[in-house]
Amino acid sequence: MRVVVTGGAGFIGSHLVDAFVARGEEVMVIDDLSGGRVELLDLDRVTLHHVSVTDAAAVTNLITTFAPKVICHLAAQISVRHSIANPAADAETNIIGTVNVLTAAATVNARVVFASTGGAMYGDGVVLPTPEDFLPGTEAPYGVAKYCAEQYLALFNRLHRSAHVALRLGNVYGPRQDPHGEAGVVAIFCGHAAHNDQPTIYGDGEQTRDYVFVGDVVEAFLAAIHYDSDGVFNVGTGIETSVLELLDAVSAAAGRQIQPRFAPPRLGEVRRGALDPAWAADTLGWKATTALRDGIRITYEALTSGSRERASGRLR
Ligand SMILES: NC(=O)c1ccc[n+]([C@@H]2O[C@H](COP(=O)([O-])OP(=O)(O)OC[C@H]3O[C@@H](n4cnc5c(N)ncnc54)[C@H](O)[C@@H]3O)[C@@H](O)[C@H]2O)c1
Fold first, then answer.
1. Does residue 283 sit within a domain?
2. Once rounded to an integer, what is the mean pLDDT over residues 21-48?
3. Are the C-beta atoms of 66 and 2 separated by less than 8 Å?
4. 101, 155, 263, 286: which one has the fewest Cβ atoms less than 10 Å from its Cβ?
5. Per the domain annotation, does 285 fall within a domain?
6. pLDDT digits (tens, 9 = 90+) for 140-193
7. Cα–Cα dist 194/294, whole Å
8. Are both 222 and 78 inside the same structural domain?
9. Domain match, 194 and 83 both
């Protein structure tokens, strides 16, 4: 099967590419390398096109020529803080870029599986864990753009009778992660632990998120590809983990208790978050299986082993 992975040189995308290659699929990556790294790809087995998804003509040309069956669309501006500083640039990549991918997909009837966000979608004061039908109360342009992109998926499904799927990812962590994304805190803590530095916690450390291991997220993409209908699915554990609990897990992996310093809370930060994964379990047959402490240990060991699996771009 021919598969395109946009953003395939990034953290999650490169793990997904590896999974496709291991299954013998023919993989083409579209990535502008603004956040991704060529060395995360095995270029003997994967074709990389250094192209931005904002370039509609180039994207259409690549996709019509390759004619993939599936497009996993992960290319994105991933920083919530950048989206607040420059909402137009965020919208250009995350909305227009998605429309370009959907338009190109329609020319060859390719199915799109889109990396949306759960962590930045629902906002505060919601039912926890939050199900998919809860109305978005996003606090940042990044979440608005992802929600808007989901609406385009649904629109294209109505217009073209396609079955595109959106996966609302929790805070994904694991080897190869860069510290700047949504779950960058794991990479940051692991980097501090490896260097024996003191990490900073903003606020009291009791704020919670749903941390999901990258290997489980790859499995969710594979399950979505084999699902024969459209839909929006939370991809999380359903478990709230506080920043302090996370630091404990990193401390356990590093073999010593790491003492943080505390700084004032950051404005606009959501207090609590967890995604209800029941719909994904019922329909996709997907469930996160990696316990947080195991996933953190794998991430920390990858970082300190100095292999291709490094957890943080900071330590290159
Ligand atoms: N990491 C998380 O916790 C998390 C949570 C929810 C959703 N997501 C989504 O998952 C996807 C992958 O995120 P990640 O954490 O692997 O981030 P990442 O930065 O490692 O990967 C994104 C990739 O997209 C590429 N890219 C950026 N702009 C592009 C453009 N205009 N054209 C082509 N390529 C472009 C980057 O070079 C990078 O390789 C993103 O869509 C992100 O919004 C991530």
1. no
2. 97
3. yes
4. 263
5. no
6. 999 999 999 999 999 999 999 999 999 999 999 999 997 765 568 999 999 999
7. 17
8. yes
9. no
- Do residues 135 and 196 both lie within one domain? no
In a domain, 53, yes or no: yes
- Establish whether 122 is a catalytic residue: no
- Alpha-carbon gap, residue 71 to 81, rounded angstroms: 28
**How far is 279 from 249, CA to CA, in rounded Å?**
28
Q: Are residues 89 and 12 in the same domain?
A: yes
Q: Is the pLDDT of residue 135 over 90?
A: no
Model pLDDT for residues 26-38, shown as the tens digit of each residue: 999 999 999 999 9
Query: Which residue in 122, 142, 152, 211 is the catalytic one?
Result: 142
Q: Which domain holds residue 254?
A: 174-209+239-275+290-315
Pairing type for strands 26-31 and 2-6 reads: parallel
> What's the CA-to-centroid distance between 31 and ligand 1, angstroms?
9
Residues 65 and 104 in one domain: yes
Listed in sequence order, the residues at least 6 apart from 135 whose beta carbon sits closer than 8 Å to its beta carbon are: none
Torsion of CA 135, 141, 143, 146, to 10 degrees: 110
7 lines ligand 1 (CB under 6 A): yes
Dmax over Cα atoms in the chain, in whole Å? 56
